[in-house]
Amino acid sequence: MVNAGKRSGRPRAGEERLSREAILTAALRIVDDEGIDALTMRRLAATLQVNPMSLYHHLPNKAAVLAGLAELVFANLELPDPGDTVPWDEQLKTAARAYRDGLRQHPNLALQVLSDASVVSNVVVVTMEPFYRALDRSGLAPRQVFEAANTLIDFIHGFSLGEASVRAETFELAPDLLARVQALPPGKAPILTRIVSELGSTGLAYDFDSGFESGLSTLTAGIAATARGR
Predict the structure, then answer these.
(1) Mean confidence (pLDDT) of the chain
(2) DSSP letters along 58-116, please?
(3) Is residue 55 part of a domain?
(4) Cross-referenced PROSITE patterns, in alphabetical order (predicted)?
(5) How far apart are CA 207 and CA 154, in angstroms?
(6) pLDDT at residue 55 above 80?
(7) Which of 46, 125, 163, 214 has the greatest count of CB atoms below 10 A from its CB?
(8) Considering only CA atoms, which of 51, 24, 27, 56 is closest in space to residue 39?
(9) CATH number, domain at 39?
(10) Most trustworthy range by pLDDT among 50-64, 68-82, 150-164, 214-228
């Protein structure tokens, strides 16, 4: 006699097509559209039209879902090795741009990924390979490669956090900066006053693409100078 309190082994409608990939795809859609706080296991199950308990066969908790989403974001960052046909500094810039773009495509997730190191711990190894590969070809010593790679990643993470929080291609660094500087007593912060005045109000607008390229070029030039000094 079958116990009415037990479910049969047959999956409910919709559960037979359930997979880890389907769950993560739906989760990413929720996060992109509504933010990380909107993502719950119950909400995810409702979106997929399945029993919430069926999700746990594929992903045991929300933390596992977030880790899986990090994998999706970083999945395309294992760049192929171009060999010596591309200069090391261009390889490094390509890796940095790809890393930033991966985060920029999903700003809601980026804030979570970058504030919780455990989320990216399992995927960071392969995503760092293009950085290490390019830096190794620059001629740096192993310790210098390690430190340079970490500095670059820190730069991209910090930049991406700012970019994700603003959600615009440009913004004004300080809307009243020009007025504040011009109101300073004579001789107070003279260099700042001169630079800001020369730029004017339109020159103080910040463009994220330009800012990223400027910072990346500065870091790359510093790495090249360090390599030449060995």
Answers:
(1) 84
(2) T-SSHHHHHHHHHHHHHGGG-----GGGS-HHHHHHHHHHHHHHHHHT-HHHHHHHHH-
(3) yes
(4) HTH_TETR_2 (PS50977)
(5) 20
(6) yes
(7) 163
(8) 27
(9) 1.10.10.60
(10) 214-228
